[in-house]
Each structure stands twice: as structure tokens, then as C-alpha cells.
Design brief:
Helix content is 32%, strand content 25%. The chain has 12 helices and 19 strands. The structure holds 1,4-dihydronicotinamide adenine dinucleotide (NAI) and magnesium ion. It is an enzyme of class 3 (hydrolase).
């Protein structure tokens, strides 16, 4: 909804608690005088009365959306109300419901009414909807939830037998996220990885680790509380560093035996407790390939759902040109080597996860993986100027 539409609907003045809007004519003039673009999607504001005039501040769509999600996480009643007009992504044993068209997958959403009908049809209690977790909302504040139809269900044996009937009813299939991830658009991929990570965390944190009592999820699923001792548990991610090492002209790529055949990636490793990101990078590079990092530069980060939730922290690092002899730690890696700029640029151009490279050439992680971004950055700008490690 755009600014102008919103004001036209609300006539002259004020409404909605602290989201008070002021006289349309005044605001329109004021905004025009101040050079605001009325077509911007700013449509919500906060106003307060100062002496004889109103002060107001428009909030961006992003800010109002963020505040709305915060409210839903904090207030169970507001969250329950949001389910009435919300939409649900469905999972079965952590596999999302997807519909396939050509090479692409799409994630359908269902209304509360459709979900209630589905559960009733398959003999499940509609109370189960309270197991759903909040994963986001649209710009119009339609809240999005995810529900696993099998996890934590008292009738889980029954439900798993009904999987194919459910798929027929829902006109889709419950597909392993690892298989589908790279054929989803970025928005669906991000929502589904968040949803899966959150559903998995709830499934694994049903009991308090101190009292052994069942913990209780809040409506949004942003935490669990032990009713007996009030300990609050929040969903966790493990920090992982991923580093593309360069010697100035070549970059170092490696593979684990668990990787798909022919795929090489940057070096990755979990941070140890008490370590900074910089220390973790130095240790992992030394541990895995026997090299000492000289400089490093942060690039970007990414949530990664496999095998459990990780926060991938991506960096570029360099080693001294004269100290490039690799000693592969075979307990961690199957192979590692230096690759020239041309070799990597060619692999990047040809990279296609559906038709993995033939005739012995190597291939790189797909676009959605942060390893791919890191490698692409290096190919585009091999001589960035990192900081001392
Ligand atoms: N998104 C991306 O582009 C990429 C993501 N990754 C992810 O990075 C992660 C870490 O890479 P690895 O080389 O496997 O790590 P790693 O080099 O630390 O080795 C894994 C080993 O570390 C130990 N470990 C320590 N803390 C752990 C924890 N919190 N969880 C699990 N194991 C722990 C275990 O013994 C495990 O076998 C992997 O889960 C992988 O999925 C890896 C490459 C690319
Ligand atoms: Mg590793």
C-alpha cells in the first residue's frame, strides 16, 4: 500500500493508538514542500502533539514490518490473532511442501481455514496449529508461519502413513530441503531454511536440560520456557568461519569426502568456544592445510541450515607468497590445492549443479551458498587489501 492510498482512506486525522496520522492536506503539502517522494512505500507513522502543532515521523516499510514482528514475538495474543489472517508453510518431518514447475520449485502458502480443514480431514487436532512458528510477514503485515504436520504429533505414526494422501490433497510433494534449495527463488529459500531451522530446534528442545520437565513454546516460537524453574531457551546457531585463502595469484580450494563428487569449496570450520572470528580463521587454516594466515578481510555472512543451524562468517585471507606448501589434514579433508584465476573463473562460468561437470573438471558450490559468493568476489577482484590477521 502506498502513502497516498493510505491517507485517502483515512480522511482527515488521527487513529490507531500511537500510529496517529495527521490531516491529509497538511501532510501532502508538507511532504511535497520537503521534497518527499509520495510514491515511496512509506505508509505508517508516529505522531505526537507539541503545543499547537503535530510532529510526525514516517516509518519506512522495513521499520514497521520489523516492529510488527517484534510485537508478535513478545505478545502471544497478538500472535494468535495474526494467525487468523496469516499464511502457513507446511512441512512433513522437516521436508517442506513444494510444487514443481519445470526446473523451479515453489513453496505454497495456506490460510488458517485451509489448514484447519486439512487437519480435520486427516483426523488431527486443530490445536496442533499452536505448534507453528512465526517466520516473517509481508509488507502488508500478513504474518507467515511454518507448521510441521508430523513432528511432535501424538499421532505421528498415523500421520507418516498419510504422507502421500496429504501430498495429493495439497497438490505438491514434501521434498528434502537439500534437494530443493538451489531450485527455489531467494525469498522462498531464505524463508524455508529459517522455518526448517526453527522447527528442528523446537523438536530437539522439548525438555529443560536442568529440570528434565517439558518446556513450553511461546506462540511465535521465538523461545521455550521451563514452567518449573522459568529458564528461557532461545534458538541457537553455531558460528562457522569460511575462508578463501589466496597467495596473491591463486586461491586455495578443498573438498571433504562427504561433498558431492567433483565439488571443491573454501575452507570451513566451527568456531571453538572462547574464540574470535579471526582466531578461528587462523586455527582452521592451520589445522586443515598447514598454512599460516597473514592477512584477512571480512566479506559477508549467511545462515546455513545444514546439518544444524550455522551462522557462516565469510572471509578472504592471504598467506605469504613464499609459504604456500599445503599439508592436507586427511582426517578433515579429502583433497586441497591451489587453483589459478583462469581455472576458477572458468569453473564459475560453467557452474551448474544440475549437470555436474564431466571429464574430471571440478565444480563449485551453487550460487545460494556463501562459498560461491566468496569465490566470485575473488575472481572479480583477486587483489583486495585485507587487514593483518
Ligand atoms: N554455505 C556454504 O557455502 C558452506 C557451508 N559449509 C558448512 O560449514 C560447516 C562447517 O564445516 P566443516 O568443515 O564440516 O567444519 P569443521 O572443519 O569444524 O569440521 C567438522 C568437525 O568439527 C567438530 N565440531 C566442532 N564444533 C561443532 C559443532 N558446533 N557442530 C558440529 N561439529 C562440530 C566435529 O567433530 C565435526 O566433525 C558444515 O556444517 C557445512 O555444512 C561448508 C562449506 C560451504
Ligand atoms: Mg572444515
Amino acid at each position: 500500500m502506498e502513502l497516498l492510498d493510505f491517507y485517502c482512506q483515512c480522511e482527515n486525522v488521527l487513529f490507531m493508538g500511537n500510529k496517529i496520522l495527521i490531516d491529509i492536506q497538511f501532510k501532502r503539502n508538507h511532504l511535497l514542500q520537503n521534497g518527499f517522494d509520495l510514491t515511496m512505500s512509506l505508509y505508517c507513522g508516529i505522531a505526537c502533539r507539541r503545543k499547537s502543532f503535530w510532529c510526525f515521523r514516517l516509518l519506512s516499510t522495513y521499520v514497521t514490518k520489523t516492529r510488527y514482528l517484534f510485537e508478535l514475538k513478545e505478545d502471544d495474543d497478538a500472535c494468535k490473532k495474526a494467525q487468523q489472517t496469516g499464511a502457513f508453510y507446511l512441512f512433513h518431518s522437516l521436508a517442506p511442501l513444494l510444487q514443481k514447475s519445470g526446473h523451479q520449485y515453489q513453496a505454497p502458502r495456506h490460510s488458517l481455514l485451509e489448514l484447519e480443514r486439512l487437519l480435520a480431514k486427516f483426523g488431527q487436532d486443530t490445536q496442533r496449529i499452536e505448534d507453528s512458528v512465526l517466520i516473517g510477514c509481508s509488507e502488508q503485515h500478513e504474518a507467515w508461519f511454518a507448521l510441521d504436520l508430523v513432528l511432535n504429533s501424538s499421532s505421528s505414526i498415523n500421520a507418516s502413513l498419510q504422507k502421500s494422501e496429504m501430498e495429493t490433497e495439497l497438490k505438491g510433494s514434501f521434498t528434502k530441503l537439500r534437494k530443493a534449495l538451489f531450485q527455489l527463488n531467494t525469498k522462498d529459500a531464505s524463508l524455508l531454511t529459517t522455518a526448517q531451522a526453527l522447527l528442528r530446534w523446537h523438536d530437539a528442545h522439548q525438555f529443560c536440560s536442568r529440570s528434565g520437565q517439558p518446556t513450553k513454546k511461546n506462540m511465535a516460537g521465538s523461545k521455550r520456557v521451563c514452567p518449573s524453574n522459568k529458564i528461557i531457551y532461545y534458538p541457537q546457531m553455531a558460528p562457522v568461519v569460511i575462508t578463501l585463502v589466496s597467495d596473491g595469484t591463486r586461491c586455495l580450494l578443498a573438498r571433504q569426502s562427504s561433498f558431492p563428487k567433483g565439488m571443491y569449496s573454501a575452507l570451513a570450520g566451527f568456531c571453538d568456544i572462547g574464540e574470535s572470528m579471526e582466531e578461528a580463521v587462523r586455527r582452521e587454516v592451520a589445522e586443515e592445510v598447514g598454512l599460516e594466515v597473514e592477512t584477512l578481510q571480512y566479506s559477508a555472512s549467511q545462515h546455513w541450515p545444514f546439518p544444524n543451524s550455522s551462522l557462516m562468517i565469510a572471509c578472504h585471507a592471504t598467506v605469504k607468497p613464499g609459504q604456500t606448501e599445503i599439508q592436507v589434514n586427511l582426517k578433515e579433508l579429502e583433497a586441497a590445492g591451489w587453483f589459478s584465476h583462469d581455472e576458477v573463473a572458468t569453473a564459475l562460468r560453467k557452474n551448474n549443479p544440475y549437470t555436474q561437470q564431466q571429464n574430471g573438471t571440478f565444480w563449485l558450490p551453487p550460487k545460494l551458498a556463501i562459498a560461491h559468493q566468496l569465490i566470485k568476489e575473488w575472481v572479480e577482484k583477486p587483489s583486495c587489501s585485507p587487514l593483518p590477521a
